[in-house]
Amino acid sequence: MDRNIPPTLEQRTHLRKALKAFVQAQHPCPPVSLRQLGQLADAFVAERPDCTSLRPWLMVEINNQIWLPVVAGIPHERRLLMLPKCLSRYGQCQGEYDEFGLLCHHCGQCNIPRLQGKAEQLGGLSIVAEGFTQVIELIESRVVDAVIGVSCLESLEKAFPLLVRHAVPGLAVALNDSGCRDTHVDAEYVEELLDLLSYEAIPKQLDHEAIRDQVGRWFSRSELEQLMGPASDPTQEICLEWMSGEGKRWRPFLLSAVWQALTGKTDMTADVQMAAVAVECFHKASLIHDDVEDRDVTRYGQPTVNARFGDAFAINVGDALLGLGYRILAQTGNPELIQLIADAHLKLCRGQGEELFWDKRPLTMDYVMNIFRFKTVPAFEVSLMLGLSCTGDFAHLRSMLKDYSEALGIAYQLKDDLEDFVQDNELACRPSAALALMNEHPAWSQEEVMAELKRLTDQYHQQALDALTNLSELELKRLLYQVTEKILG
Questions:
Q1: Cβ(351)–Cβ(373) under 8 Å?
Q2: Pairing with 119, which of 4, 226, 345, 368 sits 20 to 30 Å away (CA)?
Q3: What's the pTM?
Q4: How many CB atoms lie within 10 A of CB 403?
């Protein structure tokens, strides 16, 4: 028996009932961060000091109770049961192994056929394998929408950060004993979780790929010409070429995904499309102007506009894209969209100005962080705020999303500076966090600078998740957890 797990079935059952009441009284909305799970476990232990040694197990069970209503609302056929190989009886198992795991022969020597049979009887999928990485792939590819996993507590502790960061709807059951063979699980409890089914409406999970496909179509040449006008002159031709070319289009995706998460609709309105195209106009304009100011000659592996046509023409194209962005937003009839973009535009210019002026002032971390707040943070914030504004509601979320955007933007830039420093990229050409730390702490070694950058990145990463603690809109919270992982993971 694992010493970090309640030793008897009676004790485990009693604690699971107590945790259910405890979580229901807290009303947490999934997903929750590891820090919040730890805080909830500590609060439970404060009421029951005899459970101190059970903290990891308690975190697993608390997470189960938080996700349970969501998983119950997901059809059985959209769930995956994942079992460990060590449940089989060592030396007696007649199953065979392939690249996907154990192929059970239903010899009846262990609980694997019983649990697999239950899952498949309900219409779900089941596999016997180790590790949860493939679960993330199955969730992201929309093969399944939820997972019920059985594993040893040690493996669950390792897998939990991965599952939490990806906001996977899941329930986990820890094996009752440690070791890698002849393990046992509370089979009746697993069957109880498999049986769960609720007909209460839960928000429909966002299909990220479908959103990306839709956003991609908005940037086809034909769609852009309808909004921006045909290529009647060289400036307009380069604007259309630049807008329909390469790019991740994170901002249009975020705007559209926020709108879908809050409205529950999949057919996006014309206003959402126009706002998404407009925000990309401003982004592309800022890149063109950046390339001129930084004298860059390549972007997306291709010559920049200034490298092809000269600085004067590039500045003109960037200005034209700004004008097109404002004109498109004006067509929505929503003045708040114009105000949001204008505020972000001005912040970006201030941040860029501070960056261009950096060699005339003492380079400190405070100075660099201020550049991040003006230059990087608005890029995240404006997309979220535009999506919010397009819903016409949810104004109460603005402060929370601003706090999230600030922490995410700073963490993103710190991570970028850390990667440049590790790769020994040129530091002297811009005010980076690495250069500021070296200036403030000239005696620090490279390893100490890297360690501090990593600490600060993790700190702001956690602050981004902490900002979402009281967010009660399930799909928006899931989206932002997943976005945080994509950007910072």
A1: yes
A2: 4
A3: 0.90
A4: 16
